[in-house]
Amino acid sequence: MGSEESTATTLVTALRGVLGVGELPVRLRTWDGSVAGPEGAPVVAVRSRRALRRLAWSPGELGLGRAYVAGELDMEGDVFATLEALTSAGRLASRHASPAATVRERLDLLRAAARLGALGPAPAPPPEEVRLRRFGRRHTRARDAAAITHHYDISNDFYRLVLGPTMVYSCAVWESPATGLDAAQEAKLDLVCRKLGLTPGTRLLDVGCGWGSLALHAAGQYGASVVGVTLSPAQAELARARVADSGLGDRVEIRVQDYRDVTDGPFDAISSIGMAEHVGAGGMPGYVRALHDLLRPGGRLLNHAIAGNDEATTDRDPDTFITRFVFPDGELQSLAGTVTALESGGLEVLDVEALRRHYALTLRAWVERLEKHWDAAVGTSTEGRARVWRLYMAACALAFERGLMGVNQVLVRRPGGDEAPLRLRDWR
């Protein structure tokens, strides 16, 4: 008389089809203690039947992400090793949004859920999932403000634990992997200032100024006069406090303001660091036009942005983990698309620098800090929010390492005025 198939074995069989793999690349430990999957593989713990129900309703990336954020599914070992295994083959290895499971594969998953007592209505999404309306026009002022609030207003203390004292939430610039995150972020701030040619009295507009780190560096180290704008009230509150504490209130002004509403140009230089990802493909011409008009002739703009390394704009699918939990309405342009938009808007390209490997190092350092301060991070937000950030930052680190995403600094100038030096790479 044959023994009954274990819970873990049933689930492994169903997940192989849904994920599109011949062999499940991880070992499963299920809620009843049974284990199945290849020996020595990273272990994923399925702690509740509810995780399987989520997958039955949303097979693939989104269902897995929801179960992880809700604590119904966990990675028992190293998060990078587990994600590397999960995303090395099958649908989760796709460069684009994960292809949908076939009807037969979904039916097999439903049969497994029925055998394991996991059928039922769709579980409510975790509270950390954004619920922006999925219809209507993207990138209106109100909708952009709501998207920014979702991502940046969770807790300044949470970000301080992850980012460290520099409070810089964009790719650092590393001399070597041994540089250390804080020194690498200071190097990035200095690189931006030198690329923009800042000198005492230079008037700088920092679009998407975050917690004011670049504004403080530009004013304190280069004597610039800085206006920083952000849509996040929480960021502005802390940035203003940091400006006051530094004694640079006469040189730095922080505003809660949409860049489209800035009217007090011209500026000698404009920095846009990690902000263009929030603009969207349709908004790029208006974004470039607005910044062009705020820049004096001869002035420089540095556009620092993550790129999707393919021909199409990415992250426009509203049902990916990133768009649901992390960057609602976020869109990545290709480098070619960004350069085309800048040139079409009347700006002259001076320099392009790719920093892909630098962002992988930065993200790994952020994950390390989050895990080191896990209990405190959970205390400043929620466990679900900490899980979102751990999963998204680790997955993005792997994407940068594989070349699926890049990050680039594109330096441009508005024609007219003073010419740029014949050789610009003195900042190296």
TrEMBL record:
Domain Polyketide synthase-like methyltransferase: 158-415
One GO BP: methylation
Alphabetized CDD domains for the sequence: AdoMet_MTases (cd02440)
GO MF annotation terms: methyltransferase activity
Gene3D superfamilies: Vaccinia Virus protein VP39
Source organism superkingdom: Bacteria
InterPro entries in UniProt: CFA/CMAS (IPR050723), CMAS (IPR003333), MeTfrase_dom (IPR020803), SAM-dependent_MTases_sf (IPR029063)
Keyword entries, A-Z: Lipid metabolism, Methyltransferase, S-adenosyl-L-methionine, Transferase
Annotated catalytic residues: C396
Coiled-coil ranges (or none): none
Entry keyword annotation includes Translocase: no
Similarity comment: family membership: Belongs to the CFA/CMAS family.
Name of the molecule in the record: Cyclopropane-fatty-acyl-phospholipid synthase
Species, as recorded: Geodermatophilus sabuli
